[in-house]
Amino acid sequence: MARPRGICMSSQKAFTQAITIYKHTAGFFGLASMYELVLCSEILSVTTNGIIAVNEPSSEEKYLGQFPVSFGAIAPFMADLDTTDGRGNVYYREDSSSDVLQLASDYIKRGFPESAFDPSSVVIVTWKLVAPFQAPGEDHTLEEKRNTFQAVLASSDSSSYAIFLYPEDSLQFYSTYSKNGDENISAMVGFSQASTNYYFWEKPGSYNVIANDEDSIRNLYKSSNAGKQGIWVFEIGSSSDSIVPAKISSILESIEPNEEDQEMTSKPFTSDYGAEDFLTSYQDVTGTPSTESFYSPQNFPTAKAPPRQFRIQQFPPQPPQVIDVEEFDETGIVFRYHTDVQQTCANNRHQCSVHAICKDYPNGFCCSCIAGYKGNGRQCVAEGSPQRVNGKVRGRIFVGNNPVPVVFENTDLHSYVVMNQGRAYTAISTIPETLGYSLLPLASIGGIIGWMFAVEQQGYKNGFSITGGEFTRQTEVTFLGNNEKLVVKQKFSGIDEHGHLTISTEMEGRIPEIPSGSSVHIEPYTELYHTSSNVITSSSSREYTVTEPERDGVASTYTGAYQWRQTISFDECIHDDSPPSAPATQQLSVDSVFVLYNRDEQILRYAMSNSIGPISDGSADINRNPCYTGTHNCDTNAVCRPGTGNRFFCECSIGFRGDGNVCYDIDECAEQPGLCGSNADCNNQPGTYRCECVEGYQFWNSGVCAAAHDYRYVVNHCQRGTHNCDIPQRAQCVYTGGSAYICTCLPGFSGDGRACEDVDECQQGHCHPDAFCYNTPGSFSCHCKAGYRGDGFRCVLGEVEKTKCQHEREVALGSGGAFFPRDARVGHFIPQCDEHGHYLPTQCHGSTGYCWCVDRDGNEIDGTRSGPGVRPPCLSTAAPPVVIGPSVRPDTVPLPPGTHLLFAQSGKIEHVPLEGNNMKKSGAKALLHIPDKVVIGVAYDCVDKMVYWTDISGPSISRASLNGGEPTTIIKTDLGSPEGIAVDHLGRNIFWTDSQLDRIEVARLDGRQRRILFDTGLVNPRAIVLDPVRGNLYWTDWNREAPKIETSYMDGSNRRILVKDDLGLPNGLTFDPYSSMLCWVDAGTKRLECMNPNQLGRRKIIEGIQYPFGVTSYGKNLYYTDWRRDAVVAVDRTISLENDNFQPHKRSRLYGITTAFAQCPGGHNYCTVNNGGCTHLCLATPGGRTCRCPDNTVGVDCIERN
Fold this sequence. Notes:
One of its GO terms (molecular function) is Wnt receptor activity. It holds the Pfam family cEGF. It contains 11 helices and 82 strands. The chain is mostly beta strands. Strands 25-26-27-37-36-33-34-35-29-30-31 form an 11-stranded mixed barrel. The longest helix is centred in the first third of the chain and has 14 residues.
């Protein structure tokens, strides 16, 4: 469905983002379908129960008969309404046409004559001929009663209005039966603000009641507050803290209407009804209901303009845009739409595939694939090209007589189809053995993919040609014998940006048990598919043979059977009235069926060959052609063209070249150098190519790359930041006049200025032989070895030199404090040091009680001194390494440009550049495409500029260089569900959690030398972060029974629980190396919190977030990913306020997020140089390191030591 233009309910506070249709039936509440309107910020939910919810509504049992409701609601007629079995329809649309806007404006100005309201868009919702809900045996006189009413929300840039319309005699009932008791509940008309949740209680929102009993509701279509019968107008963007009703008190009967007014009295917003006009025969009755406070000014602020006159126009009826509420047998509730509003190819070409043509018809347009492509026009794929299908499977299945179901979530489904053979291979991973063998007979779980890409006989169409891979399927399987039943629901969402078809599958019910180790054989079968107006149905009976494992040399065999019924619902183009190109009934022939369960890999596999054609017993010659049986020898990237009899020939698919038996990819980029133009790079891909604009250019509507900036005038690129020099941490831009500049590397770096590399001064022998040399970006430092003291250039035997804090503390304690003149007249100040000899960030005077913050050198920070008993909020500072030699510029710390956010989104990793504390959204793009993968955790190695990620579909752990190159899988064995991952850039190790194997592991950066740190006391470990300078490890465990955040040293010692109280689902975790703050997001408590791990207490940064997953930090901001918002959200932790968010162009769940620093944070540990002297794993601890051996190191010369 095309996204209409947006509507905003105020200029300062955004109002709506999506319209959601909710369906309520007896005993059922659920989201049936969603059609998004690109509006402003929140959500409008249209329910069949006569309300428009501003927030997501609760279940109907909680709000019917209650007012106010807990969620914000606009209620033109709130009651338990029934739209099942043809008992009415719900219509909606958003409209910005001039005649509809004028009509809305006229209605509003009748109620507010002084208003100069000029709407920019309206949302129209109509409940037509809806019935009251009735309990069995209730009064049958209500069965024929029907109500019709309408709500219109109109908005301009400065104000907002609601219009309720009730046609004459349109309200035939005024109450409905209660599901919760033996009573009738009166309908409710009014407005309700959302309630406010406090810690221990909930405060109801303010509300406004228009009508709530039979008399007042009956009077709605007779009365008005706008001078016209049945019209009620309210300003919902008023400047006061209340809703403002229209107040027309004069009797309009004495007013002589003109012709245009006469026309308007019979013009409802009929473009929603598609029926006769119904606002006719107005009586001059006024009504002004009392009001109570509703939306506050911050919700809908207004700024009224001077009055302005608008000409009343005539409004011809328009055809409808409809949401039909239907029910198909036992398939549940289906919402489908058709758009009868005139649409043309001129402004809808984007709805067709790039490989399709668009054709206009009298009532609309349709898409059809061009020659060489197959599909429904909206989705097209090259004939003969192999296809891939990816998706997720979830289920709750009882096996045999077992009273406990097997429950699985987020299981991967992958399918590969050899299109010219109709051969489909499907694999479902991580299916437990207790269920895997019993699912073997259900080959048709993957058989739907075979139907979609079945070989088509002449004049017949497979599923993809009909649906384009966009449909829902509900299947009911009934096993004969014990009558077990399984329901399978599948949704196919078309082709994604990687060219892969996407699917989601749900299974629930009971199936017969098949013994572990058995094999299942399924004979070839046929199945009839019947197509009728957007619905395809099929039913059949099938048998399968089970061979159980041998016992005493004998393998028993038995036969099972089940009945299979399925309904497929899809959208077809209704405007093309030409005869169907394929028969209404087609036969799917399936053979070479192969089913297998691998208990070691826990993978369920189905394979089958499929062809679709006429109803036949298989004896016709046409069914035996090699093109239809898949027995040809064409290349997998070729189309098999049938001839007479058994003759055929092979033709390479579009984008390939050859004789058909062998096809090779055409490199369009090499053969047509100018294909993408001079401002784009051409990237060849199998069967196609891709144009990507070079830096400084972007795609325009014309499909070409044009300059993103206008450089017609002289520009100082150094000042503007549009140069191509390396980042400021490594290079500087030197302006040379005009628009010219040169790039030079900073001291400590070498290169041409556009690409600068760090000089490793440690290779030049600057340090003393008894010192360690630490190379840092642009600099280096020297530190004497243990047992030596000195500055690193000169080291002598002796005790370890004391730090400045330790030395001053020793002097103060020994000299009575004369060393410190401040506050000496009151008492002696004694510096406080941490366990490493660094100054504690907060220093307090023992006698006076005054406290202040200090920097890393112990100097008091101005303005931080507090009164007695008050501790200022000081940030921890890590002691820097002793810097010898040239140093990097101080203005690059701690917010260097060139820092990025990296986050995972399904099969790709994206990045957003950071400019200071702001996300540079225009520079966001996919960093790495990883098709067929589900990336969860991401981590970054600031030394080698490598990104690491976990993939639960493999499962595997991989990495890739940000400077280019192919991704490399470094670990792919002995993994269950790897999720969180962290990089120790000092010790050159990776750490990860595995929520299926319930353990935490460590390995070298290349995946070698794996060692399990913890495999006990874990239930659902997820996020993991490091503080490598101090040698600490932190992780979350979202065990629903006892969630916790734990910590240990990086060698696994000193494990302890850090946080266990007031946690729900702690998903994401981050450690800020600059402030030493540990922060987490919790999807259970809906909070973002922080703490200093070395101090007591925690701070709530922000509450009421939706469903956070990952979190990272940079500067004053925390950035978290949110599943509900499909966004990266920025929060200023210093003022506890959300300040920005970013939604990728492709909306889907976002997972892990990390910060890719332009340069590594300062600091070192004992593993930094020479691997700490360890033979294998060097794992840092506070003030030291531990040498550990990897697991399973039989015969390896490894030395462990602390």
